[in-house]
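Title: Comparing notes on inverse folding

I've been comparing how different people in this forum approach sequence design from structure. To keep things fair, I'm posting one structure and asking everyone to reply with a full sequence. Here's the target:
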């Protein structure tokens, strides 16, 4: 959720890496899981959970989040969340967003993203196929998860941000704010391919998305959509 539904920076990943001795090139959860003994894994995870609790005091909801989610809901689009945060932190943030997501999965669902399993699980829960979904996120993990599951992928962030710059080359489209997602889903004026900066030319849409599309907030869902990005 950090960087997608909330502003980046509340959770200090650099500090977490330093405290648990995780190399920069390794995923934090993957680094912890690589240890053979349970006591060590538990000790390292306790550090992560402590930092997640402390970060809650600094969380800021991304501007436009409530309006975008309410608009999606009003137009029949279902929403879900896939996060690598712990269950308690995820629930605390979702309460502040004040949106009734159809499904929300924390890292307690294994394997977590970037593995496609949580995304596919949500699609199964709501009775939708990957072609009826879009994964929206700010990180490469989000894009890898969506691409592996076979959904549309939308990267959100600011040009120049290192996390976002790693994600955008593998996304179908890029936006700087959550409200910009709506026209991409056929819920407003569709931007032209030229206006969709960062989308690889081979994956730019050749036609408007059908109105009964679905999104993903870290996930948004709705049945019977047309995804011309597959063309």
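Reply #1:
Here's my take.
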């Amino acid at each position: 959720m950090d960087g997608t539904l909330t502003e980046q920076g509340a959770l200090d990943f650099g500090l977490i890496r330093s405290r648990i001795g995780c190399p920069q090139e390794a995923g934090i959860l993957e680094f912890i899981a690589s240890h053979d003994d349970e006591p060590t894994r538990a000790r390292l995870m306790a550090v992560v959970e402590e930092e997640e609790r402390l970060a809650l005091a600094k969380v800021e909801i991304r501007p436009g989040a409530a309006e975008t989610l309410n608009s999606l809901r009003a137009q029949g689009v279902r929403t879900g969340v896939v996060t690598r945060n712990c269950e308690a932190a995820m629930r605390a943030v979702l309460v502040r967003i004040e949106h009734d997501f159809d499904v929300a999965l924390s890292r307690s669902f294994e394997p977590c993203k970037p593995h496609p399993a949580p995304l596919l699980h949500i699609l199964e829960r709501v009775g939708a196929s990957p072609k009826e979904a879009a994964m929206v996120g700010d990180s490469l993990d989000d894009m890898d998860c969506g691409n592996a599951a076979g959904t549309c992928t939308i990267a959100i962030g600011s040009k120049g941000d290192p996390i976002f710059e790693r994600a955008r080359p593998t996304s179908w489209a890029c936006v700087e704010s959550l409200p910009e997602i709506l026209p991409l889903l056929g819920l407003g004026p569709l931007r032209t391919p030229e206006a969709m900066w960062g989308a690889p030319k081979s994956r730019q849409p050749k036609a408007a998305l059908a109105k009964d599309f679905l999104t993903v907030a870290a996930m948004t869902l709705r049945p019977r959509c047309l995804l011309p990005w597959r063309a």
